[in-house]
Amino acid sequence: MLEEGPKKIIRSSKPIRYIVVHLFNDYSGSPRVLADFCKSEAIQSQSLSIVTSASKGFLEDDLGEKTIIWCPRGRFRLLNYCSFALSQVQLFFVSLFLILRSWLRREKVVLVNNTILSLGSMLASKITGTKNITYIHEINSGPRVVRYVAEFLIRCTADHVIFVSQFVADDYNFKDKSTLVLPNGLRADFEEPITLDHAQKFDQQKVLFVGSLKEYKGVNELLVIASALPDIPFIGIFNTSNTILREFQQSGKIPPNLTLMTHQAGIQKRYEHAFLVMNLSLPDQCIESFALTVLEGMAHGCPCIVPPAGGHLSYFDAGSGLICDARNTDKIVAFIQTLREDRAMWRQYSDHAQKAASKLTASQYSSNVKKVLDQIIVPSEF
User: Fold this and answer.
1) Helical residues (DSSP H) of 180-235, grouped into ranges
2) Of 79, 154, 304, 324, which one is least surrounded by beta carbons within 10 A?
3) CA–CA separation, 368 vs 362, rounded Å?
4) For 164-314, where are the alpha helices, taking DSSP H only?
5) Which of 218, 222, 213, 287 lies closest to 258, judged by CA?
6) How far apart are the first and last CA of the chain?
7) What's the pLDDT tens digit per position in 309-351?
8) Alpha-carbon dihedral 22, 69, 125, 137, rounded to 10 degrees
9) Nearest-angstrom CA–CA distance, 114 and 43
10) Are 332 and 243 in contact (CB under 8 A)?
11) Closest CA to 117 of 100, 97, 98, 134
């Protein structure tokens, strides 16, 4: 975990250029955390270059210099595999260019590879001898062969490995590497302090689901649960395109009490008004490495329903809601019915959740980023 070293590290006056690489920019958890990493004072006090796709997501232009790669995604798996291979070539040459340019500017270079999918930039760091930090958010990431290749490259190229939770760290074997656990925090773009109208939250009884429009995220279970509680308003916010969501809406499976929408900027208001938050990821198909949506719900006083396995269990316990496999829809429906009929019980869960989430704030995350970098960025190594 994070510990202060016995010696105070004295940084040289030579500026640092952080080159941060993330393959595909969207509204999922890993670019969300990376955006907060980039917003931290430790990074913003230096120079920052971001390499990512042109798609819309959390990695916005105001974070620093941004270099775009072409990384299209579609519905055809074979074409996506071809796009992935091409994007790795781009990551290699773009990272190589930025490293060489930084050398010409007499900058120290630190390359941060976000997720295990930044394979091309890992190779560029190895060839140039650039300090390489690999920031691992995920356990499952596509075909198993991708993880095998990624683990091999990380062992060959990474100087330091950062994990988002101990749960994720335990799933990898990098004993010969310098590894640290950097727990995520509440997203930095949320307004604080959070003020809640508990009476309104309970009376409106809105149930919120935030995630990807994928079967392994429990989308089918969401439909079943919403159908079983027709007098409760459900809201599903998905990290997907308007076109795909429209087609899903036209499938004829959507109960009338379920409102669907794509990611939106005002999502904090949704949490503020929510009665309960559900994460329905199926644990045998998708293990949550940290489950940011759960933390976000808890911070806004929402009892949560969470999977029985994953990194969220480092901060979530039964006092904050229900730990249950999403396929046990009868148990989930019964839990929601019990809460809606017992204001005192709901408030007890709400207060416990908010108190637990208060230990993982945005400011604490920013402070921890500095502690991590102070441990691994040693001027004498450049």
Assistant:
1) 198-204, 219-228
2) 79
3) 10
4) 166-171, 198-204, 219-228, 242-249, 267-273, 292-299
5) 222
6) 25
7) 999 999 999 999 999 999 999 999 999 999 999 999 999 999 9
8) 10
9) 15
10) no
11) 134
Do 137 and 290 meet the contact criterion of CB atoms below 8 Å apart?
A: yes
Task: Give the residue carrying structure tokens 């101990």.
Answer: 166
Quote the pTM value: 0.92
* Alpha-carbon dihedral 56, 58, 64, 70, rounded to 10 degrees: -40
Q: What would the two tokens of residue 2 be?
A: 């994070």
* Distance between CA atoms of residues 21 and 122, nearest Å: 10
**Beta carbons of 324 and 292 less than 8 angstroms apart:** no
CA distance 80 to 86: 10
> Looking at the chain, how many residues does it have?
382
Residues contacting residue 56 through CB under 8 Å, at least 6 positions apart? 25, 26, 27
Question: pLDDT for 245-296, tens place per residue?
Answer: 999 999 888 999 999 999 877 899 999 999 999 999 999 999 999 999 999 9
Which structure tokens are listed for 308?
A: 């029985």
d(CA 133, CA 284): 30
Instruction: Check if the beta carbon of residue 26 is closer than 8 Å to that of residue 55.
Output: yes
Q: How far apart are CA 28 and CA 8, in angstroms?
A: 36
Handedness of CA 48, 311, 191, 262 (dihedral sign): positive
Q: Which structure tokens are listed for 39?
A: 């917003």
